[in-house]
Amino acid sequence: MVPVLHFRQGKPGDSPGVEHDEIQKLPSGSVPVYVSCIDYSAEQTLFQDVDDLDDFLVHHRPEWSAVRWINIDGLSDMEVIHALAAKYNLHPLAVEDLLHIPERPKVESIGGYESEFQARLFIIARMLQIHDHELENEQISIFLGHKTVLTFQESHGDVWDPIRQRIQMKGSRLRLNDASFLVYALLDAVVDHCFPILEHYGDLLEDLEDDVLANPQRMVITDIHRIKRDLLMLRRVAWPMREVISFLHREPHECMSDVTRVYMRDIYDHIVQIIDIIETYRELANDLTETYMSSVSNRMNEVMKVLTIIGTIFIPLTFLAGVYGMNFHYFPELSKSWAYPAFWAVCVVLAVSMLIFFRRRGWL
């Protein structure tokens, strides 16, 4: 199945970006949007499920809060997007990338829109998960300020539950660092989740290799092509993510602490390792395809060899039967009682002799 690409909507000549007052004009979906907020510092934490967003945005964050993480699951409710964009002065170009899916993983240094709001980083990543034996690819949009992190997901469910648990642990490294360290932890979880996915495909390739060598059925090549398609998706995610992590590691930014930049190097090492594994598995999948074609060809050759041997055996038998099927008036052997058994004895001796000859030549 070829993945469907969704292109940007709009007419040529339209102004770039999505203005705050235009967001609410976009069509809303029926999937509910879930908003959660986590405030934490070295001393305490506060987890909230936001039911009334307007009331939540009116109130100021706690004074003790060193980092606020607002997570939005789902992009169908445009009123939620509008309220957050207006509250945090999200740039229209960033909002456009947020709403138009899929976007290539990237990172941009972008400030508030027509505001003196603090400069921030805008990051797009892709989160991979396996559900019902299918590889799912979800876009993650992250806004980083000095003390605030906003994350937007396409749907419910993510790989960040261990991070939420670490925030609850007093004395954890997350609680002792700034907002940029939280972004590091989020990206690290997204990248490291690729390893169990690759392990899953490694096991599948090993099983397929045994099937190709033992019994190459038609369904085997279908499974190989499905794995090659999923590995291509992984490659399209991993390569631009390497550029994102490299930028965050190398380029200084006021929202990115020096401590976090050092830790970004660890993610970069992981993404390079993931790319190497992906390339190795792609080569293995290509080798399995060639092995399958060779196995099918060899099997066909074996079948043709057997049929050719059978046909060769029957050539002299057909000749003898043809001789005795000729309409001559005088056949000396017809008057002999031993003639018919002798005929079959000659046929059997010829067939056995040819089989022995074929076996000695290594044709059987």
Write structural notes for this entry.
This protein has eleven helices and seven strands. The chain has a seven-stranded mixed beta sheet, with helices on both faces. The protein has helices at residues 20-23, 53-58, 78-87, 92-99, 161-168, 173-176, 179-192, 194-214, 218-250, 258-324, 339-360, and strands spanning 34-40, 45-50, 67-73, 106-110, 120-131, 134-144, 148-153. It has two domains: 20-294, Beta Polymerase, domain 2, CATH 3.30.460.20; 301-360, Up-down Bundle (Methane Monooxygenase Hydroxylase, Chain G, domain 1), CATH 1.20.58.340. Helix content is 54%, strand content 15%. By secondary structure, it is of the alpha+beta class. Residues 1-9, 23-30 and 112-117 have low confidence and may be disordered. Helix 7 packs parallel to helix 10 (258-324). A hairpin with a 2-residue loop joins strand 5 (120-131) and strand 6 (134-144). The longest helix has 67 residues, at 258-324.
